[in-house]
Amino acid sequence: MESIDLLVLRTARDWLAAGDRVLLVTVARTWGSSPRPVGSMMALRNDGRVVGSVSGGCIEDDLIHHYTTAYGAAGLPERLPDVVRYGVSADEAHRFGLPCGGTLELVLEFIPALESLDPLLASLDAGQLVRRELDLHTGQVTLHNTAAPDQFAFDGQHMSNTLGPGYRMLLIGAGALAEYVAVMAQFNGFQVSICDPRPQYLKTWSVPGVVRIQQMPDDVVRAFAPDVRTCIIALSHDPKLDDLALLEALQGPAFYIGAIGSRRNSQNRRDRLIEHFGQTQESLERLHGPIGIYIGSKTPPEIAVSVMAEVLAAKNAVALPSEFSISQAKKIREVQRCA
């Protein structure tokens, strides 16, 4: 399952190529609470069909009503980009289903040029990170390859949005837990690969859309070339597979690196990496383990929910309170039982 940004852009490109009129909408600025972050996109076809979202649904309905033939309007106009604002007053916020005090500003691109979407999608499909810049004065779009994602920017006349290949997840160990994590990751737009040199494990893998790799994990991590949109999770429970792969992962900029295991096993792993591989407490600070947030999970699907929650928090740069960590939460429960 590809990321929502790619889905919106690809669908808009296909609609335009088929001769349809398309409105490309981007969340440019927000004040207070907002259902969707800046940079979120949706595409609206002239018959009222929508892909992507900029709110919980009410604003999409209003855009359909004003800019398509779905409710008897004349159809999408062909004009320069425009800016609209929703939720300025309390009445409007209530009408459009925005949270209390929420306001958002949208950039509307009427019938975006097909010749700018084709090269953009070609670069994204090739794994490039691309900064898309829009000049609202002229409607001109320029594309720039970039090495690192820039913050979304909008000054009222110029909009800059960094788009890139979907977030990637590399799982090590093709067990039952990995299958549940893979499914949840795909629903969240991750491109998932599973690595396991043991053929008996890969043969039983049942999740479609996942790249299967039967090689030693440390070699796979090296070839995977992790970047800031990559997470690597060791789930094999086998130190011969997990340890070397984690060492390779820690040398790169992956936003999340973790390994399954109890508190004791996680500490044993850290001790091994320090004693035998020259790591330090500081160099292992990025290594998550035990992985996940504490929700009392016992079964593989429950553990997968816990792990995916921690991955998404890291992806979204959310610092979780210490009591959310499995180690800390279990220590607190042990103290409470002894009290």
From TrEMBL:
XdhC Rossmann domain location, by residue?
169-311
Looking up InterPro entries in the UniProt record yields:
MoCofactor_Util/Proc, XdhC_CoxI, XdhC_Rossmann_dom
Per UniProt, residues of the XdhC- CoxI domain are: 15-70
**Where, if anywhere, are coiled coils annotated?**
none
**Which Gene3D superfamilies has this protein been placed in?**
NAD(P)-binding Rossmann-like Domain
UniProt superkingdom: Bacteria
Q: What is the recorded name of this protein?
A: Cytochrome oxidase I
